[in-house]
């Protein structure tokens, strides 16, 4: 059995997820690069291997229970445990819109990937996280999920009219808090990371931050010491208000 620390990042074939995978690799982890399209994942793996990192592709479509089960079985048979899970995969669904206008099917698709997919992946991998010594779970969130920020009419966050994305990520925050409560006695720390607006397919290519800068906060939460926080959302500048 491999004795290195093992991390799995969902949606790691591009964007912030790929940079989280890279930085965890640089921190000494064997990184499982989750990708719904294995060929796209293998391109990222190739890049990470060329950088001298230990990366392995794993097919993982978070909305497909069979794919999730198969990935978990693969991690179990190869490594027997999982030290870090980063739930990074997410979408802003096509047609995302204001609360007064969004089509309910669009809202449903945001929850399907961003919340139900995330919970399904976490539940499938939890037995393996429990087998690790003090595992860490990091869920990618956003300031668009902050009631305090979206609720402030002076905030730029109040002008972004994407109910599907914002409300599904607010649900991710609640998943984070409730799972942290459940796992408090186990030593497993569960936190959410807001990478800030980063230049990716999702964030828009004119965003000020690089995906690597966005990845850093998630990596910090994935490598917290024993006395680290749990059930919180952090951005680079510190704790985010709910
Ligand atoms: N960029 C920002 O400004 C920003 C700000 C705040 C929070 N975030 C959060 O940071 C995370 C990464 O965002 P990003 O900007 O890197 O986005 P991105 O470039 O669009 O990448 C998203 C990743 O998620 C994958 N994905 C989407 N649906 C999936 C599914 N059903 N199953 C498996 N993988 C799936 C994508 O795979 P494909 O390549 O196959 O589509 C891709 O690998 C997200 O959780 C996002 O909400 C981003």
What percentage of residues falls in helices of 4 or more residues? Answer: 40-55%
Question: DSSP strand (E) fraction?
Answer: 5-15%
The end-to-end span amounts to: 41 Å
Please give the number of β-strands: 8
- What is the CATH homology-level superfamily? NAD(P)-binding Rossmann-like Domain
Query: What is the structural class?
Result: alpha/beta
Count of all domains: 1
Instruction: Label the overall shape.
Output: globular
Please identify, by name, the CATH architecture.
3-Layer(aba) Sandwich
Low-confidence stretches: none
Oligomer: single chain
Could you explain the architecture of this structure?
The protein is α/β, with parallel strands linked by helices. It has one domain: NAD(P)-binding Rossmann-like Domain (Rossmann fold, 3-Layer(aba) Sandwich). The protein contains seven helices and eight strands. It has an eight-stranded mixed beta sheet, with helices on both faces. Strand 4, helix 4 and strand 5 form a beta-alpha-beta unit. The longest helix is centred in the middle third of the chain and has 28 residues. The chain is globular and about 50 Å long. The relative contact order is 0.15. Bound molecules: NADP nicotinamide-adenine-dinucleotide phosphate. NADP nicotinamide-adenine-dinucleotide phosphate binds next to helix 1 and helix 4.
Q: Can you describe this structure in just a few lines?
A:
This protein is an alpha/beta fold and 242 residues long. The protein has one domain (6-92, 117-142, 165-237): Rossmann fold, CATH 3.40.50.720. It has helices spanning 15-26, 38-50, 65-79, 104-131, 147-150, 163-183, 211-222, and strands at residues 6-9, 30-35, 54-59, 84-87, 136-140, 189-193, 233-235, 238-239.
């Amino acid at each position: 059995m491999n004795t290195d620390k093992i991390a799995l990042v969902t949606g790691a074939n591009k964007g912030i997820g790929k940079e989280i995978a890279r930085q965890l690799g640089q921190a000494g982890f064997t990184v499982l690069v989750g990708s719904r399209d294995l060929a796209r994942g293998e391109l990222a793996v190739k890049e990470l291997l060329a950088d001298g990192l230990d990366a392995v592709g794993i097919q993982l479509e978070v909305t497909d229970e069979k794919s999730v089960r198969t990935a978990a079985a693969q991690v179990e048979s190869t490594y027997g445990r999982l030290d870090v899970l980063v739930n990074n995969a997410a979408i802003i669904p096509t047609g995302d819109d204001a609360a007064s206008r969004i089509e309910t099917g669009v809202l449903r698709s945001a929850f399907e990937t961003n919340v139900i997919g995330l919970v399904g992946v976490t539940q499938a991998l939890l037995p393996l996280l429990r087998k690790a010594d003090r595992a860490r779970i990091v869920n990618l969130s956003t300031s668009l999920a902050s009631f305090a920020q979206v609720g402030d009419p002076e905030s730029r966050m109040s002008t972004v009219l994407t109910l599907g994305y914002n409300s599904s990520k607010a649900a991710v925050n609640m998943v984070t808090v409730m799972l942290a409560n459940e796992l408090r006695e186990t030593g497993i720390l569960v936190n959410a990371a807001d990478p800030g607006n980063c230049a990716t397919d999702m964030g828009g290519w004119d965003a000020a931050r690089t995906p690597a800068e966005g990845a850093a906060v998630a990596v910090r939460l994935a490598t917290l010491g024993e006395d680290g926080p749990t059930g919180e959302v952090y951005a680079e500048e510190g704790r985010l208000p709910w």
